[in-house]
Design a protein that fits this description.
Blueprint (H helix, E strand, L loop, with lengths): L3 E3 L6 H8 L6 E14 L5 E16 L4 H12 L3 E10 L2 E10 L5 E4 L2 H21 L6 H6 L1 H14 L18 E10 L3 E8 L11 E7 L2 E9 L4 E8 L1 H6 L5 E4 L1 E4 L6 H13 L3 E10 L9 E9 L8 E2 L8 E7 H9 L6 H20 L1
Parallel strand pairs: 10-15
Antiparallel strand pairs: 1-3, 2-3, 2-6, 4-5, 7-8, 8-9, 10-11, 10-13, 11-12, 11-17, 14-15, 16-17
């Protein structure tokens, strides 16, 4: 059976073209009687559920070849979906087809709108699908499913990264379109990923560079926040074991840091900062002030930081330790006089760059914040 009925996110033409590797040549409107398309509870995608008296609207992909069917099966299997036979209604009459369904029907929660999904999730899903399909023939669908959360987070970072932002006026006016991409490879992909490219870029003196190979750790965007009580002139810092210093051979791989967390797919960085302050620091932030939006290490990583100061009431310090058990977090919280932390920064005793940046920024803005607070 080579006809496929699509009822959900693959009705988004750009996403479908990425999955198939081409624009599908033949499709028509179709309906599956006795079923409805419903939103999956807590997720942006829909489910096909039995619904007597209703009809699920979709499209019928006609006469798909082995290559297209293989790519569709690879994409759907990454989410635990497999093909099942159905008979759909078209303007030309009933047609046998196959539809992709999960092994276990998910819990649903009301109607689902393709238009609303396209506005909120379309671009992000296109980016995620590009990585999923790049693994076709290299990773099993199960392995892709295991890391799909990070695939989607990396996709969200690329969407955020494509948004223009103000830059210093002396920075080169050339844009990414002027870089000649010759080859792209992804030699490693798991919780993090490594990507490698052969490229040529415009030179400041004119012309182009020779072809060079550049690689980077592909990480996600992160939101960082230092909770500060202007009335008490105190900050809250967290301390935890860190694998980076440990792998470097640091004899004391525990670090003082701002509160921090990955920006989840579809989430605004400000929302991440507030959520992480409650999860990691046990405090509710009253207001956020932007300290920095920046790359911590642009020579070797895509990681991008949104760093905030979070005004908070620290008169009732949270529990000394905390963190999410499901994320194996073991966090110690410190509420400290700002003056003490500034002295440590001046003495070179803080070894996490974003924290040192935040402390120096806070020292400059302290009087304004205390007056306003």
């Amino acid at each position: 059976m080579r006809d496929v009925f699509l009822y959900g996110t693959l009705r988004h033409a750009p996403l479908l073209a990425i999955v198939l590797g081409e624009t599908p040549p033949g499709q028509q409107a179709a309906r599956l009687s006795g079923h409805a398309v419903r939103a999956v509870a807590g997720a942006p995608y829909p489910a096909l559920v039995p619904a007597p008296g209703e009809s699920a609207e979709g499209i019928l992909l006609r006469d798909q070849g082995p290559r297209a069917l293989g790519r569709l099966c690879h994409y759907e299997a990454a989410f635990g979906y497999a093909a099942a036979p159905v008979t759909v209604e078209t303007d030309a009459g009933p047609k046998p087809a196959q539809v992709f369904l999960p092994d276990v029907p998910p819990e649903t929660d009301g109607p689902w709108s393709l238009g609303d999904w396209q506005a909120a999730w379309g671009r992000l899903s296109e980016e995620a699908a590009r990585e999923v399909m790049a693994h076709h023939g290299r990773l099993s669908p199960g392995a892709i499913g295991d890391i799909f959360g990070m695939i989607r987070s990396r996709a969200h970072s690329r969407v955020l990264g494509a948004t223009p932002r103000p830059r210093a006026p002396i920075v080169a006016s050339a844009d990414r379109g002027s870089v000649e991409l010759l080859a792209h490879r992804r030699p490693y992909a798991s919780y993090f990923a490594m990507e490698e490219q052969d490229l040529r870029f415009p030179l400041f003196g004119g012309g182009y560079s020779e072809a060079v190979t550049r690689a980077a750790l592909v990480a996600t965007d992160a939101a960082l926040v230092v909770p500060y009580d202007p009335r008490r002139d105190e900050v809250l810092l967290i301390e935890q074991f860190r694998p980076g210093p440990y792998l470097r051979g640091d004899p004391r791989p525990w670090c003082l840091e701002p509160v921090a967390g990955r920006v989840d797919p579809g989430e605004a960085p400000e929302t991440t900062a507030r959520r992480e302050a409650e999860e990691e620091a046990g405090v509710t932030l009253e207001r956020l002030e932007t300290i920095s939006r920046s790359y911590p290490s642009p020579g070797c990583s895509t990681e991008f930081f949104y760093i905030y100061l979070g005004l908070a009431d620290l008169s009732r310090p949270p529990a000394e330790t905390g963190g999410l058990e499901e994320e194996a977090e073991d966090i110690r919280r410190h509420v400290l006089p700002l003056e003490q932390v500034v002295e440590w920064a001046d003495a070179g005793l803080l070894d996490v760059g974003p924290l040192e940046l935040s402390v120096h920024w806070l020292a400059r803005h302290r009087d304004r914040l205390r007056t306003a607070g």
